[in-house]
Amino acid sequence: MPIQYYILLALTLFSIGIVGVLTRRNAIIVFMCIELMLNAVNLLLVAFSKMQYNLAFTNNKATVAGSEAQLFVFFIMVVAAAEVSVGLAIIVMMYRNVHSVDVNFLNRLKN
Amino acid sequence: MNAIIFSALAGVVMMFSGIFTKNTSIITNVARVALAVLIAVNLLDTYGGWMIAVDTKNLLSFNKFGFFFNTILFVATFLFFVLSGRDIEKVGSYTAEYYALIFFSLCGIAVLTSFNNLLMMFLGVEIMSIPLYILTGADKKNLKSNEASLKYFLMGSFSTGIMLMGITLVYGATGNFNLPPISSAVTGAVVSDSIIGPLGLLLIFVSLCFKVSAAPFHFWTPDVYDGAPSVFTSFMATIIKAAGFFAFIKLFEERSSDLRVSWKIIMPVIIIATLLAGNITAVFQQSVKRMLAYSSIAQAGFMLFVVYANNNSIGKEGILLYAAAYSLATIGIFAILIRMKDYTFNGYNGLAKKEPFIAAVNTILLLSLAGIPLTAGFFAKYYMLAAAINAGGKSVLWLVVIAVLFAAVSVYYYFRVIQAMYFKEGDAEVENVNNRFKFGLLIIAALIISIGILPSVLLNWFYF
Q: How many folded domains does chain B comprise?
């Protein structure tokens, strides 16, 4: 399958994530949209990894090109997990104080 | 490498110190000692003394510029611990953990000052920011702190997502994550020579603008800085911001030519927007804390000049000077602000009569932020503008003139504090002023003035 399809799919997922972050008002859903962005990146990285491997393979049969992108994916997963643990803790902390996870509530506190 | 290992170790030590003792002043002293050790090992590393050698497979590359930047930020953090240690203890009942998180954040900074690979840049930014999300929400019962924490977290991870997409697209175009672009082995690849590489770089640029709060991506800054506990605002607004700029400079001195949108168009727009957004809004603030948040955006506008004038030695000297001048002055001002009863401008009324020494130091620090000669801030701003002229010649003169005009605007809101302290009647209240606090302030003021008179003292050190 040509790489363009993967790029298109990943960019679509990423855009859905961005639009979600900017428009949804529920902190949990905003958070899910951020995860969607990160996973779109993971998908694209794996696709690019395979692409770079195939390109290098035609010249050199023993190539390891593209493996670092797959390693990068693991790093993204680990960091995303760390962010989830911190983020959910923050959301729970807020829920305990205001009994709501609505982001709109926050804007009322301005000034 | 010393700095990375020892800052992580110091974080672990701090976590354990919370188990063994509940006495917060002991914990604070442990943190100060750990930080002093950290500065010492970093200096050893700088001058080729004892160091831990790890083969990082070219993921990290260490040079004097990075080491020196580390030293400046660590010394600033040390002064922050000395001045505001008492106030960190007061934020909540988890003193040891707050210090541990600060050390982990410093570990991220040490990674950021030495990355040579986009993977390490990503990890450095994350290691630096994730502890800050927690520190912002440290005041758990305070709704403003909750708000700030959630907002910072959502904005931070959003910009992380954008940065990752940028890195991925750059990888797709070049086939590696290395910082100096190695001419790709796969010329004639499907996506090379397409829009993908520049687009990726543009996304990384946007996410770094988020991190250093450059306009138009600054909107989270005032709310977060205002809502966070003041001690941690002081840390975030100075040390973290300076480290963000280092990453910015390091990435774009290698890669700015890859960004096909002309650098000469995109940077002036960002610089002017940042100066405008920071300075003009700061004028209308009633709270000194919020004014300082906007002023940090305005100062970021000046630091962006060095990104604009990339890869030039005046700029590199300038960012070192700016990081030192800005961090020291802001840490001092915040240390005083934290102990004020009232955070508004009126809260400073008549401070000069009650505490003449503190008012005098505060004046020196504010003058430095405004960029008045004989203080460090003047030379910091001077080097920034000189770097821009050195890189662009006469064609950037208009930009420099605009920056100077905005510096004049900034004098207005900094002088409002001085005016309140000296020329207004009132009973400003400062809590817990002891001799150690005054001594710390004296050191900061002395550093600011001595850098202001002889900037070469600091800069020559860089070339040893």
A: 1
Residue B32 domain flag: no
Break chain A into its structural domains and give their ranges: 3-107
Name every residue whose Cβ is closer than 8 Å to that of residue B345 and which is 6 or more positions away in sequence. B286, B287, B288, B291, B416, B417, B420
3-state SS, B291-355, equals HHHHHHHHHHHHHHHHHHCCCCHHHHHHHHHHHHHHHHHHHHHHHHHHCECCCEHHHHCCHHHHC
3-class SS of residue B1: coil
CA–CA min distance B420, chain A (Å): 22
pTM of the complete model? 0.93
8 Å CB contact between B387 and B314: yes
Q: Is residue B349 part of a domain?
A: yes
Give the domain range for residue B409: 262-464
Give per-residue pLDDT as tens, B117-152. Answer: 999 999 999 999 999 999 999 988 888 899 899 999
Could you tell me which chain A residue has the CA closest to the CA of B150?
A: A90
- ipTM exceeding 0.90, yes/no: yes
Query: Tens digits of per-residue pLDDT, B385-409?
Result: 998 888 877 888 999 999 999 999 9
Letter string b/e over residues B164-199, b meaning 16 or more CB atoms within 10 A of that residue's CB: bbbbbbbbbbbbbbbbeeeebbbeebbbbeeebbbb
Residue B146 sits at the chain A interface (C-beta within 8 Å): yes
Q: The domain at A3-107 falls in which architecture?
A: Orthogonal Bundle (1.10)
Residues 7-46 of A with CB under 8 A from B: 7, 14, 17-18, 21, 27, 30-31, 34, 37-38, 40-41, 44-45
